[in-house]
Amino acid sequence: MAIDTTAPEAPLGAAPPPAAPAPHRPVWLQQNVLTAIVLAVAGFALGHWAGNRIAGGYPNVAGASGENEVAICLSLGLGVLGWLLGIGALNYPIAKMFGREAIQEPYNPSWTRFFKFSTDHKVVGVQYFFGVITFFFTAGLLAMAIRTELLYPTNHLIGPGTYIEIVGEHGTMMMMMASSAVVGPLGNYLVPLMIGARRTAFPRIEATSFWLFTAGYLVILTALPFGGFPTGWTGYAPLQTQASGGMDSYLVGFAVIGLGMILAGFNLIATIIHYRAPGMTWARVPVFVWSILATSALLALATPTLVTAGLFGILDRTAQTAFYVNERGGSSFLWENLFWFFGHPEVYIMALPGFGIVAEILPVFTRKPVFAYRVATAGMFGVALLSFFVWQHHLFQSGINPDMRPLYMLTTELISIPTGFIYLVTLGTLWRARIRFEVPMLFALGMLFNFLIGGVTGVFLSDVPVDVTVHGSFFVMAHFHYTIMGGLIFALFAGIYYWTPKVTGRQFDQRLGKIHFWCMFVFFNCTFFPLFILGLLGMPRRVFTYAANLQFLNDFSSVSAYLLGTSFLIFVANFIWTIVIEPRPAPANPWGSLGLEWQTPTPVPYYNFERIPVVMNDPYHYAEADADPVADISLPPPAVAMNRPPAAQAIEP
Amino acid sequence: MRMARSTRIALVAVVLGIATGLIVFVGMAYVRTSPPTVDFATGHRAGQAVNVHMQTVGTYGKGTHPTWVSYLIQDPKTGRWVHTTLLDVPADTRVNFTIYQFDSGSPLRNQQVGLVQGTIGGKMSVNGKSLRLLNSYSNAGVAHTFSIPTLGVNVPLLGVSSPNLCGVAPCSTARWPHNVVRFSFVTPKAVGQYAWQCFVPCGAGWLYGNGGPMQTIGYMDGLLKVVQA
Amino acid sequence: MAETNGSSSPPTGTTGSGTPEPPHAKRMITFWLIISLVVDVLYYTLAGPHMPPGDMTSAASGAQFDLNILMICALPVILGVWTYLGYALYNFREGRPGTLLTGPMAHGNFRLQVGWMVGTTVLVLGLFVFGTAELIIPAGAGGGEGPDPIWTPTSHTVLPIQVIGQQWKWTYRYPTYGGFETTSLVIPDNTTIAFHVTSLDVIHDFWAYQLGIKADANPQQDNVAFTTTHQLGQFTVRCDELCGLWHGAMYGFGHVVTKAAFAAWATRTEAQLAANTKLLPPFQWTYVPDANGADGGYYPDNVDPYSKVEIYGAQKAKV
Amino acid sequence: MSQAISREPAEIQETLEERAYELRAAEGATWTGTRLAIGIAIFAFASLAFAYFYLRSGNNLDLWEVSGRAHSAPTAYGAAVMAFMLAAVALTVLAVRRLKAGRLIEWQTAGWASVLSGLLALGLQIFELTNLPFYPGRDGYASCFIGWATMNIVAIIGAVYWQETLVARFAVLKRLFAAEGTTFDSPLPAARLFRANADGCAAFMIFMAVAEVFFWVLFYVI
Fold first, then answer.
1. How far is C112 from chain A (nearest CA, A)?
2. Which of A48, A587, B190, C278 lies at 20 to 30 Å from A621 by C-alpha?
């Protein structure tokens, strides 16, 4: 529907109603991250007070346990509300109740826009980038602590209680981060550019998703002062119901992050479906956009289950319902089912964007079209669809529906078929190519190498008899680190190195980039490959004690993990030096890409495209000298020019 | 965005400095939450038995969790009661435990832990009386257990039947009703840290009575750190 | 864009130098076949017999066999991709960096795509059939099968042992010996054993590594796992589902002993523990302790018709 | 691009075609967005329904319902909440039809009535939740009921909020339109987008009706 460029039947008539002019606020009334912090703290305090007022009198809530979960949940919830209020995410929703139009914030070219509620998808993308990196490095530091504790089999450097808390915190933060790692920064920034749109469909929802993401980060951090949570990232009940205050941070944090995930997916789906430029038919949509569409569908549809399951958990802990407590008519299986019904699509939320980036980058560095484009998209949607039907493979030994195990073994193994499509596509693209080993290409190839190991070991896990040995062991741990860290994070870094010239107009030092890649690649494998062996040798996940004969492998892994951590410092140094302190200007299109996003000026103007481009070809025609250009973006100036009315035309539901 | 180079360097330095500071601060604050370790190993002579005195209280009575049940250990050098559950003991040594039990009892979640196991002679002495088994459904029930599952040590501690219970630690044996439980075992030859805990679901207000203090080191869980003397 | 844009199989292009292309595909496939064969044979003969979890029981040796079969299927896949990657990256690398020559145009290759899909599908379905057979024939392959296992061992003499998980230790009840409960796990050789795994509180997971047994311990659920012992020796038991503070310390050792030794041990222990066994609740497959602790508290007692039960197995809820 | 880049948003020059294209995109996005919102809500409520059927069919320890009907949630309240919500839905759907027919007064009246009815449902649902004859942790039914009541409150707030923003926006737009001498049934962008949004709200309301009836049957009837 979006390729029709004719004018609507009726004349446009009067201009849409003018919106209220942007109010000129004094500096101290402007909303930014500082007001957000202030209101978040105020909301936290208010919630704490209210929780104690409301529930403090019930001995079952705050009596002998000495801990008022109602107060903790309320303070976290109101804290998040204050955060959103302070940043200005709720201005429009509140104004809407009085029939007001959205206020168009004045265009702000200064750096302060990154600390404000911005409806520019490019600003949101950059904000997400720093959010994701902060999240990633925080959780990465916790990983270093985990590996430190595992240096000795029975001596404890950190202590068992703290260790369990750190394990849970690391896992949860990484999962929260990884589900937005690509969709957030690269998806929001690039999708409109790639499809030739001037904006996303629901820019305020997009911005709100980012500020919920940051709120989720703060909420999950509060788990540590509240005493952590002992359940790991899976939060199994009834241990969840038994745990102390940090568990509330986990549940509220996941709910907040989950809402952000839903909103981010929601906006991107509508954008990709409706804001494609004229001529951007489905067959011309870049593979990366396809992957983001598949991911967004999973984000929007799988995450509500997590939020609902979290709500039940919060009710169990505050209102003392018994969803997950068997002795009171609940079921511990209920959480396992609901959680994994979200949890397995979540795994592909983290894998698909990685496929997209790699398939998008390979043609540029092989100077070839992407091989079997339709197979690639079919593969992504096949994975997305199948991912809803495999969740019980996490529960093969649980005693839940044991007779259904062959079915889930089948669906799980079937997923390797569409995943195999991706390999067909990427390997086919390499065939007789002209491969340039630039930094993004190295990361993309590294992803292919790592994900292969992660994927193949996944088949081992799907096989029920073998799963009896490897389930819940370090083998699983190594498997999903190979797919997420080795897959998604490598792809993310490929994307970062690839698109930074577009986003910043500056270029990384390529030699340092290559050093970063090789350190990360080698030490990643040294860290996680031994974990496969440890798992096969009988080391369960999340333990602080292990057999003495496993110490060498553990120590090898730990030392490699430190070096892996250090390799990120190379990236940070590279970033600080060549992007911030001594900027190196990048050529307009350093990799010679045909992608539409590279046809825009750098830095990308506020409305992305001077004229909405007319797309004429898919961006993979590297081999053809006489191929049509991807898009015509140099149309003559309009016959009837008019100033765009400042009011946003879309009405958001 | 146009800033002088020196401004940018300064800005980056400040951000990095704040980040490093935060990491160090949070890390140190977090590590610091570990309770102290009472040392029974230093100065220990081979062949000599070690005497450990502990007490259990129904409510610790102060600090961040005044309602929580807790163990305390007496420092052998100063004689002061320390609010901790970590103790260093020498390897391959007989340790004589004396536990002053100030809490009320209840039936056990699993009567299996009513059995005395892993001590020398497979018995304990309760107020001077030698016992191998506590029936938690009769008498005053069992208040707590001192159990090291990986070493096979398990000692149930008889509950106090008096309604007049000590509520603020440390409790004075002269003032409050209590039971004195004595037992001994020989520490393993292998150095390492052995988890010990209580198996009575005495974490009031928590699901299964096993949250809060029951899952916090320094209250009802601890480490027996076996070290080379 | 149509896949038919691509040229014939294997994908070829026409750009580049005029010299004829060497037979890339043939070279790769030959190398791949040889190396796969060599690695598979080496793996099966050298590593295969030592792969975990060993062959102490039927479930363990079954798991070992399955692992080996999967490895034999997986190694050629991995080697194939590596071979291709290595070959392609070396031979198709751009010699002169900086220039942007184009590679051959190949949007797709219909036969290759169909071949790939058929190949992966056949492999996957084959693995599924194999996995299902290996799950059903050895009676659940040592995994937890829930309260009513449909895949049961053929042996008529099955020794039931109840495994009770509790924060944080394992205890074992022997219903055929008066239901005594002990912390030591001793099982007889050449016997089919049914582990009935349950929990008194949160979810644990009973993992007897060398036995090839893994079953979740769920509250109020009887999760059954079967195996037949073949060898004497010691095995490790660990908790494999995060269950709180001392999850990592929830481990122990069990022993497979001769039948005679087992009978002697069991009779002796039954007598030793008789005093405590009398106090235990009568043997049941599952037990229902109160959700509250000894001092009560999480859920208020006596606000509704729910009895206050504090000890495991004492009573069911009054309905 | 040779020409100078306009970096100020206000400086962007749009052609008629671009305006029309963006309008259609916004309209389409509204349609997709509202339907997607229904999809999201379906997954959320399906989780609750799953919990209900899982606990009911499992009937752990016979604790799905401890003591039969007497201790279930008060049927009258449930029926009233459902009735008010169904009325709100009917009024919304009616209102949108009137809007499309150009009967603006009727649309406005029905719209506000729908908001009022929804608020009554909300109030009753909150009152019922705080005055239940059973303890939340009594049994499986009690737990699921609390879950339903909580989710229902959130969903009703969302639906009523949506409808309220529509009628409130209408009041403002009407004045502006009157000042320009045009009416609401015109093909003006603002009018078209407004109708698309109202249409989406009605679609969501219909979903709400289905959910209300479905869960009313689950919790009060069977």
1. 9
2. A587
Number of structural domains (chain A) is 2
Instruction: DSSP letter for A606, please.
Output: T
Domain-located, residue A22: no
Pick the last residue of a domain from A117, A149, A169.
Answer: A117
Can you read off the two tokens belonging to residue A151? Answer: 């240096």
Helices (H), D72-139: 75-101, 104-130
Distance CA D222, CA D219 (A): 7
pLDDT at A337 over 70: yes
Q: Residue A192 and residue A198: Cα distance in Å, rounded?
A: 7
What domain range is A77 assigned to? 27-101+112-117
Domain that holds residue D51: 18-64+74-221
Q: Are residues A150 and A205 in the same domain?
A: yes
Cβ-defined contact of A431 to C295 (cutoff 8 Å): no
Contact D141 A329 (CB under 8 A): yes
8 Å CB contact between A333 and A309: no
Residues of B in contact with C202 (CB under 8 A): 208
Does residue D206 lie in a domain region? Answer: yes
A46-50, A336-340, C13-17, D13-17: least confidently modelled range: C13-17
8 Å CB contact between D183 and D14: no
Averaged pLDDT for residues A605-621: 86
Chain C positions contacting chain B at CB under 8 Å are 164, 166-169, 171, 181-183, 200-202, 244-246, 249-252, 273, 275-276, 279-281, 289, 291-298, 310-312
Which CATH number covers residue D42? 1.20.120.80
What CATH number was assigned to the domain covering residues B37-227? 2.60.40.420
Whether residue D13 lies inside any domain: the answer is no
pLDDT of residue A636: 53
Q: Of A322, A383, A324, A378, whose CA–CA distance to A350 is shortest?
A: A383
pLDDT (mean) for A602-612: 85
pLDDT in tens, A123-138: 999 999 999 999 999 9
Superfamily classification of domain C158-279: Cupredoxins -  blue copper proteins (2.60.40.420)
Q: What CATH number did the domain enclosing A268 receive?
A: 1.20.210.10
Of C299, C316, C319, the CB nearest to D66: C319
pLDDT, tens digit, 9 for 90 and up, residues C19-31: 677 888 899 999 9
Instruction: Name the residue type at position A345.
Output: P
Q: Where are the domains of chain B?
A: 1-33, 37-227
Name the burial class of residue A95, with classes exposed (0-12), middle (13-18) and buried (19+) by CB atoms within 10 angstroms of its CB. Answer: middle
User: Which of A537, A565, A581 is the endpoint of a domain?
Assistant: A581
d(CA C266, CA C174): 8
- Both A339 and A471 in a single domain? yes
Best C306, C309, C315 member to test D by mutation, with max D CBs in 10 Å, is C306
Q: Which residues of B touch A238 (CB under 8 A)?
A: 207-208
- Residues A127 and A80 both lie in one domain: no
Least confident of A5-14, A243-252, A387-396, B23-32: A5-14
* C95 CB-near residues (< 8 Å, 6+ apart): none
Structural domains of chain D, count: 1
Q: What ipTM was assigned to the predicted interfaces of this complex?
A: 0.91
Q: Is the dihedral of CA C173, C174, C180, C184 positive or negative?
A: negative
- Alpha-carbon gap, residue B106 to B143, rounded angstroms: 6
Q: Tell me B106's DSSP state.
A: B
With contact defined as 3+ CB pairs under 8 Å, the chains touching C are A, B, D
CA triplet D41, D42, D48: central angle to 5 degrees? 95
Give a yes or no: residue A316 inside a domain.
Answer: yes
CA dihedral D199, D205, D209, D214 (to 10 degrees): 110
Q: How far apart are CA A253 and CA A307, in angstroms?
A: 10
Q: Using 50, 70 and 90 to split pLDDT, how confident is the model at D67?
A: low
- Note the pTM of the prediction, 2 decimals: 0.92
